[in-house]
Amino acid sequence: MKQFKIFSVLAFIGVTLVSCNSSENDPYKPEPSKGDYVKVESMEVILDLEKEHLVKKLYSISYNSILKPKVIKEYSDIDITAIPSIAPLSYEFSYLKEEELNSIVIKKDGELELDKLIANYQGGKLTTLEGKDASKNIKYEFLNANTIKATQLGKTYTYEYNNRGNLSSVSDESGKLFAYEYGVGYNPFVHSEYNLLFDYVPGGDLVRFVLSSKNEVKSAVNEKTGEVFKFTYKLDEFGYPIRMEVEGKSSKVLVKFTNAIMRRPS
Q1: All residues at 6 or more sequence positions from 82 whose CB lies less than 8 Å from its CB, including other chains
Q2: Is-contact 99 66, C-beta < 8 A?
Q3: Is 59:196 a contact under the CB 8 Å cutoff?
Q4: Quick one: which of 16, 123, 197, 244 could link to 263 by a disulfide (CB 3.0–4.6 Å)?
């Protein structure tokens, strides 16, 4: 599923942007209960913190009128000051009337269709994601409210969520791979079932659009090596992450987010 990775800075079609202007006595704050959502419109992954303009991965997301991902564009190894006019990879989403995922079309250079993934359901639960190459199809099992299994190419990952809706661990046939601890702040993708950060979780590319996490990760432990990764954040005026640094024993990664406030039509 490596081909199925995704990110950019696009105009929103059919989405109302909400003004953030407000008086000092009555500051504006987006309220999901009233239909206002803070959504990630671009995400940058940077490996050299001394050269933030050199981006390992750039993802840009546009949304449809019901605030579901419409197109995600992915760029690799670029200078952020000179983004190519055409993304090497793009992912186009369609949905069923019930707003469930219907299909994902993967394109090269904006035109050549590489694959079309079709979602299948049983009892309202996603069971398979099927493409042109049957050997790469993904099978899903919802064992209970907090446990999901995903199998592809004979490899099975188990994702455990806690009662607060956060991914707490990932395991495979060999046992637990990673465990995660959370704070009480926002996950960047809290208002989206599609979590691009899961691209950096073992097997996370299989479940990134199935279920996200609610809060921000504070630490992650590699259960095989014992290495601990610490997460620090810079937040926007509404408390949503715009900058996340992940530091391990001998590595540091910077992830930057561009957010937009959007209103779902009532």
Answers
A1: none
A2: yes
A3: yes
A4: 16
Q: Cα separation of 52 and 134, whole Å?
A: 40
Which residue's entry shows tokens 């546009």? 62
**Smallest Cα–Cα separation from 210: which of 262, 174, 157, 134?**
157
pLDDT grade, residue 28 (50/70/90)?
low
User: For residue 204, what are the CA distances in angstroms to 51, 78, 88, 184?
Assistant: 27, 24, 22, 22
Could you report the per-residue pLDDT of 82-133, keeping only the tens digit for each? 999 999 999 999 999 888 999 999 999 999 999 999 999 999 899 999 999 9
- 187 Cβ partners below 8 Å, 6+ apart? 166, 195, 197, 212, 213, 214, 215, 216, 217, 241
Phi, psi of 7 (to 5 degrees): 165, 155
Q: How far apart are CA 107 and CA 121, in angstroms?
A: 24
Q: What distance in Å separates the CA atoms of residue 52 and residue 244, rounded to the nearest whole number? A: 13
pLDDT tens track for 232-245: 999 999 999 999 99
Amino acid residing at 132: K
* Cα atoms in the Cβ-side hemisphere of radius 13 Å centred on 153: 7
Quick one: CA dihedral 149, 152, 157, 159, positive or negative?
Answer: negative
